[in-house]
Amino acid sequence: MPGDLADGRVVIVGASLAGLRAAETLRTEGFTGSLTVVGDEPHPPYDRPPLSKQVLLGKAAADTTGLPMRRDPDADWRLGTPATGLDLLGKRVVLDDGESLPYDRVLIATGTRARPWPNPEEAALDGVFTLRTRDEAGRLAECLAAGPQRVLVIGAGFTGSEIASACRERGLAVTVAERGPAPLVGALGGTLSRLAAVMQRNHGVDLRCGVTVTALRGDGNGRFTGADLSDGTRVDADLCVVALGAVRNVEWLAESGLAAGPRGIACDAGCRAFTMYGIVTDDVFVAGDVSRFPHPLFGYQMLSLEHWGNAVEQAEVAAHNMVNPGPLQRPHLAIPTFWSTQFGFNIKSVGVPTYSDHVVIAQGSLEARRLAMVYGYQGRVTAAVTVDMAKSLDYYRSLIETAAPFPPPTGAADRAIAADIPIPSDVPDPKGLSHGPTVALTGYLPDRRLTVVRP
């Protein structure tokens, strides 16, 4: 393959959204060699966002969430067979069954898994769930359909909040326990998180903030019956969903020599993995939730994203760069986008809300429950979040891409901005949350202003 990039052997580790889109793109780019996709689950790639929405509501079966193929990638699918190691020198992926797959290029797209409840005995109680996989969603949906007396959700990030929303839509009593001051605060900062708290309580959620769950209780026969909270109270419930964020699937790379750790695998803007010494590799690529990559709009800090759109766009860039020589390679410079539907509201985000020091309500109002909030850092626009006002998002995306000054100027007549006084964005320290942010930035904070020009 070094001689002819269109031929050779490519192994993709991760039968995920990113893995599938990369496989398709490789073929579209003219790759004619052997292509193997390794997955630890027995299922072909499937879509995760519906698992916490339509599947929990009983509107779709978990086994109907398979991802449509844009084209047949003509791959050898190794499903239900986890990878256990990567030999950079021998250029081999080692599998759980003892086989090793030689490669000329390898793409790591192993994503994340749900963070488990820390006490294994309590986590094993019948009625205690996490929600990340298709199988978990199917089992949880069955239990919700059976009509539990009360559901306890631990963690009020996006997944926890969507689960609570599905419970209320099904008419189920639900208690949400969150260590931080409000739901979604780790992703959206203080002002919008206060609106999220009002939304939950208005829909009948028993929301407990500023507390931790100290123990899960059983009935002596292995059945979950409730939980003890740090404020001395007890919640009686017959179902518990642990929504404490995600763990990146990097353990299998521990001996590989790659820069892999709890925040993911570090790579350059071209999706090429770094070694543990900070040297970029030529034949190991990374895409999706498991990656950390530098973004010029956010101070070249390493960005970790758990977003659907990022997995797709990064996989396409990685696949392109795997089969094209250096001068033809391109950077992954996508602006992060995210959406969530909960409690009858449509929340959409562009940019990195946590990369901010101030926010301003640019359109609408908290009282109207319909608004566009713009985030700024050191005098430039870095993010925007809309609540039931998604049509405005493209405008704010353009402000982010052009490093527009913050607070934002008055827009065109069709999107007049009557900006309030900027207030602190109130982004908390993630250590104080029971859910992790879906976007994490790590690194230093230079103050250079850069504009990203779309190709």
TrEMBL record:
Keyword Transcription: no
Source domain of life: Bacteria
Needed cofactors: FAD
Keywords recorded for this protein, A-Z: FAD, Flavoprotein, Oxidoreductase
Keyword Flavoprotein attributed: yes
Coiled coil residues, start to end: none
Region forming the signal peptide: none
Domain FAD/NAD(P)-binding intervals: 9-315
Pfam families: Pyr_redox_2 (PF07992), Reductase_C (PF14759)
Domain Reductase C-terminal: start-end pairs: 338-415
Name of the protein: FAD-dependent oxidoreductase
